[in-house]
Amino acid sequence: MFIKRNRSWSLKEHQATDEQVYLNRRSFLRGSSLLIGGASLSLAGCNMDSAASDSAITQSASTSDFKDPTLDLYPAKRNPTYIIKRDITPEEVNAAYNNFYEFGSHKQIAKAAQSLKTRPWTVKIDGLVEEEMELDIDVLVRSMVLEERLYRHRCVEAWSMTIPWTGFAFADLVKKAKPLSKAKYIRMETFHDPSVASGQKQSWYPWPYVEGVSIEEAMNELAFLVTGAYGKPAAKQFGAPLRLALPWKYGFKSIKSITRFTFTDKRPVSFWEQLAPGEYGFWANVNPEVRHPRWSQATEQVLGTNERIPTQFFNGYGEQVAHLYKELGKREILYR
Ligand code: MTE
Questions:
Q1: 177 falls within a domain
Q2: DSSP three-state, residue 151
Q3: What is the residue-averaged pLDDT of the chain?
Q4: Residues with beta carbon inside 6 Å of ligand 1?
Q5: What is the CA(302)–ligand 1 centre distance, in A?
Q6: What's the gap between Cα 303 and its chain centre?
Q7: Which numbered atom of ligand 1 lies nearest the CA of 250?
Q8: CATH number of the domain that 271 lies in?
């Protein structure tokens, strides 16, 4: 979509950051080397040499002055069904390397994301449901049973992490919503406020960020609505106060900072699908055999390590989800 440009006016990282922080950070970035096909192409331009805000690396909702009203619910009990044989990605690696275009089209958005006000926060449930509702996030979270799950997270840009998410089953929200039988899909939307999210001033993007799933996908046991990570309420850069985790799909499906769930009979067109339908399809299931038009999906860089490993079909979750797609061909599993 976009090609990296090193701007002459941008500071080199070592000029902007404390040396030790810089060296640590470079070592995981080197490990993560997002140079795809020799060029720094990514979902939309990851400028590794931009002046990054390293002070924000470990900043999270729980370390700022703000006291999360659901803090007492953490850490939640780990669900042993979702333990995986990979090391957990260190929090400081994850917290300093994020896609959240509302705050910039590069990975070092952590500091900018702290301007997001996550309370008060309401979540609207509307469309083809028995009764539309608008729920206060704390009321919603307290009405659910929180648990911790270790999930793989595979970005379409060919990097991956392993994350201890806390949250609740998407199926429980669907049950609460009581969809009508005509409802086939759920369209989700992120907040829209260019006064706090300067990325939303970039009018060439179709704000707000939108994603969609079929109701069967939302009801699948793996579909998880995330409220926390690393045993505490989610840091803002992770998509506080409510984001999705669909570990068998490319990461862009996992919409952050959700404000609305609309039940509909029409297949939603996502943010990325609007921008580049040939690159980011609706289903977007992880598929090592279908190339992104500009790079291979056969392997992935494990962030925080020097490892590049083979990518697995459905990101290793075929047992739980393959039946959802048995009507689709291999390519359709990704695009259609
Ligand atoms: N949600 C919103 N609202 N805005 C975004 O830019 N980026 C997506 C997804 N959800 C994005 C979003 C992409 S491309 C990825 S890979 C994941 O969030 C990144 O999640 P992470 O930063 O927690 O790794």
A1: yes
A2: strand
A3: 84
A4: 43, 98-102, 153, 155, 190, 209, 238, 251-252, 254-257
A5: 17
A6: 15
A7: 16
A8: 3.90.420.10
Most ligand 1 atoms within 8 A of CB, residue of 99, 187, 189 to mutate: 99
241's CB contacts (< 8 A; 6+ apart) are: 118, 119, 121, 137, 141, 227, 233, 234, 257
- Express each pLDDT in 190-203 by its tens digit: 999 999 999 999 99
d(CA 332, CA 70): 41
Q: How many angstroms does the Cα of residue 44 sit away from the middle of ligand 1? A: 12
Residue 2 maps to a domain: no
CA–centroid distance, 239 to ligand 1, in Å, is: 8
Q: Which atom of ligand 1 is nearest to the CA of 43?
A: 14
Number of domains in the chain: 1
Residue 240 predicted with pLDDT over 50: yes
Whether the bond between 179 and the residue before it is cis, its omega within 30 degrees of 0, is: no
Q: What is the DSSP string of 193-229?
A: -TTT-GGGG-TTS-SSPEEEEEHHHHHSTT-EEEEEE
Q: Of 5-9, 220-224, 292-296, give the lowest mean pLDDT range.
A: 5-9
Residue 4 lies in a domain: no
> Is residue 188 domain-resident?
yes
Residue 271 lies in domain: 13-334
